[in-house]
Amino acid sequence: SAVISQKPSRDICQRGTSLTIQCQVDSQVTMMFWYRQQPGQSLTLIATANQGSEATYESGFVIDKFPISRPNLTFSTLTVSNMSPEDSSIYLCSVSSNYGYTFGSGTRLTVV
Amino acid sequence: TQLLEQSPQFLSIQEGENLTVYCNSSSVFSSLQWYRQEPGEGPVLLVTVVTGGEVKKLKRLTFQFGDARKDSSLHITAAQPGDTGLYLCAGASGGSNSGYALNFGKGTSLLVTP
Known about the structure:
Chain A is an all-beta fold and 112 residues long. Chain A contains no helices and 11 strands. In chain A, strands 2, 4, 5, 6, 9, 10 and 11 form a 7-stranded mixed sheet that branches. In chain A, strands 1-3-8-7 form a 4-stranded antiparallel sheet, with no helix packed on it. In chain A, strand 9 (89-97) and strand 10 (100-103) form a beta hairpin. In chain B, a hairpin with a 6-residue loop joins strand 4 (31-37) and strand 5.
């Protein structure tokens, strides 16, 4: 299965600033997914990123707040913009392949 | 969004006990997956079930997919402290290589004490 390198693993940020999370995959994949996992909660899909086109966002998530880049088939970034304490969560990227779904180890974001 | 109801939400048992976690939906899924997540890590895939009525065993873990492909269960025999973690079920409406994102249940937090 694919191996994902996600960074940073954690960060503490001031409100009003932005943080960009990176995911690098060791193989080419068509679709990449970005999830949010709030403390003690399950995973909620933020958006689906397909190389060469704009990301598709789920209800409650907008591009201005969570811009996503997908410049090639092995890399994607998610930016959390103009952060507030409510954005404190774990953010995870995921890819699907013939072997199933693989997740990055997550980015634990704390906004103060 | 297809909803997955997972129960129980929390489970605290002693080493050696058996347990079952349930995942139910009103929707049909093409496949259903079970993940285990430890603190500070991403979810790790345990198993994928695809065929209605399918039963898969992974050492002390037994996974079952309902005949109608709407529900699933995870049974752990003789639980060990190493089984502690968050267990998540997730349903896919397409195949894993078709680009469909997963819908996750709320998770079952399992604590196994020595």
